[in-house]
Amino acid sequence: MTEFLKRGVPGLSSIKDLPVTQDAPPPGGFPSIRIERRLPNTGPTGAAIFGIAAAIMGYGFYQLWGAKRDKRFQADEIYTVRSIVHPVLVAEWDLRYLEHQRKEHEREAELMKNVPGWKVGEPTTKHRWLPPLESWARRSLL
């Protein structure tokens, strides 16, 4: 207790009358003070993180390589099939064009039968013209 609370108590006239107690270490001494730095382990090391990331990326590149290989195989297969079917389709377009041209010549002959000197199927202009269906078929298949 402090001196204020003890003042006026019989037998205590001065602070010098208070009992003297000396601080001393406990028996066996004080425990040692830890001054070295000990941080807790907060996770994997940088090398472990780098190794895990490299493994994940390696697996991803392996999957990408496999997907590209499959896509290339499918594209080669489609190209092969189209190159085999192409002559058949071009022949079919040629037959359609010839049938269309024959019908147009018949229609032209019917319309121009009263015009003297008119020749059916002869071009009226001088230019080079390719049938659109044949050129479209060649462009779309290869």
TrEMBL record:
Membrane topology: Single-pass membrane protein
UniProt-annotated location(s): Mitochondrion inner membrane
Pfam families per record: GRIM-19 (PF06212)
Keyword annotations of the record: Electron transport, Membrane, Mitochondrion, Mitochondrion inner membrane, Respiratory chain, Transmembrane, Transmembrane helix, Transport
Keyword Transmembrane: yes
Origin: domain of life: Eukaryota
Positions of transmembrane segments: 47-65
Chief place where the protein resides: mitochondrion
InterPro entries: GRIM-19
PANTHER family: NADH DEHYDROGENASE [UBIQUINONE] 1 ALPHA SUBCOMPLEX SUBUNIT 13 (PTHR12966:SF0), NADH DEHYDROGENASE UBIQUINONE 1 ALPHA SUBCOMPLEX SUBUNIT 13 (PTHR12966)
Family the entry assigns: Belongs to the complex I NDUFA13 subunit family.
Function statement: Complex I functions in the transfer of electrons from NADH to the respiratory chain. Accessory subunit of the mitochondrial membrane respiratory chain NADH dehydrogenase (Complex I), that is believed not to be involved in catalysis.
Name of protein: NADH dehydrogenase [ubiquinone] 1 alpha subcomplex subunit 13
